[in-house]
Amino acid sequence: MRPENQSSVSEFLLLGLPIRPEQQGVFFALFLGMYLTTVLGNLLIFLLIRLDSRLHTPMYFFLSHLAFSDISFSSVTVPKMLMNMQTQCQSITYTGCISQVYFFIFFGCLDSFLLAMMSYDRCVAVCHPLHYTTIMRDELCVILVAGCWIASCAQALLHTLLVDRLSFCAGTVIPHFFCDLAAVLKSSCSDTSLNELLILTEGGFIFTLPLGGILGSYISMAAIILKVPSFKRIFKALSTCGSHLFVVFLYYGTIAGVYYIPSSGNSKDKDIIASLMYMVVTPMLNPFIYSLRNKDMKCALQKIFRTKDTPLVSLIHSFLRTHMEL
User: Fold this and answer.
1) pLDDT score at 47
2) Which of these, 94, 123, 136, 178, could form a disulfide with 217 (CB 3.0-4.6 Å)?
3) C-alpha distances out from residue 195 to 93, 158, 190, Å
4) Angle in degrees, CA 154, 159, 161, rounded to 5
5) How far apart are CA 210 and CA 207, in angstroms?
């Protein structure tokens, strides 16, 4: 097969998920349910934060952006995956593939940065409670979130432009269910050493910096809590921080497994499973872990249900009841 540049290649073929044809219906229903739960759960959080003035605090400001990012992160790939499973058409246009690469990196980085900002916010609240409102000013929160969006955009644009310069063979097959950066690079007919070097260096820095900030924040909080040991405080910290850290390790661990841990030639299925974990499972878990177990969020839900009926509130009531039944 002869290599062609991006202007000659009009579409790629996605191999999709490694499941048997007779199991397609079951997995389609499973992933559709998980996607709807992700969208409804995060949309619920976003609406509650916007509608309840008591939730207009730095923590919930970051959380509203995380909810929007999680919806977008899943929507980049899952609808296309579901459509391919339903229609049995595995092709994707070159433009669609490059767009997936860009938005996948963009919202993946944004999730990572926002998780770091949220852990920093909690660290300030625990370690410096008397100066919390002075440190976490509205202006600083806006600057931090704007920095997250700009840094994520720059990161995504850099990798996407480098992918766009590569050549691909006619009839290129991507062994994945979406245009994952690592899978696209492996499918290229040209030299990808610069792309791989950038992933290991600049991408590694972007990966480890937020993770280091998250771990550092939780270590600082643990040190403060253990200074005055109390079974009630320790139990509360473990019940809250334990679930947060579980999602963090699930998210970063699966990403590291795909991009930074050397893999054998037969690791395609493992990479796909790892991608499903950080693209489908983690965004679905975030609403339950960060919000729906939270007392303030429960109070906001109760306030919504007690509000006098208006067309908007009636729509929200119906939406909330549907989500709670799920």
Assistant:
1) 86
2) 123
3) 22, 10, 11
4) 95
5) 6
* C-alpha–C-alpha distance, residues 76 and 83, integer Å: 13
> For tokens 């109390």, what's the residue?
230
Q: Cα 315 vs. chain centroid, distance in angstroms?
A: 27
Question: Environment class of residue 2 by beta-carbon count within 10 Å: exposed (0-12), middle (13-18) or buried (19+)?
Answer: exposed
Q: Which residues fall within 8 angstroms of residue 293, CB to CB, at 6 or more apart?
A: 243
CB 80, CB 92: distance < 8 Å: yes
Overall pTM surpassing 0.70 (yes/no): yes
User: Does the pLDDT value for residue 141 go beyond 90?
Assistant: yes
Report d(CA 54, CA 304) in Å as an integer.
13
pLDDT, tens digit, for every residue of 212-249? 999 999 888 888 878 777 777 777 666 667 777 888 88
Instruction: State both tokens at 264.
Output: 């054998």
Structure tokens at 209: 């910096």
DSSP assignment, residue 266? T
Q: How far apart are CA 320 and CA 326, in angstroms?
A: 10
Q: Give the integer Cα–Cα distance in Å for 124 and 126.
A: 6
Is pLDDT of 7 > 50?
Answer: no
Instruction: Name every residue whose Cβ is closer than 8 Å to that of residue 110 and which is 6 or more positions away in sequence.
Output: 65, 69, 73, 148, 149, 152
CA–CA dist 59, 49 (Å, integer)? 10
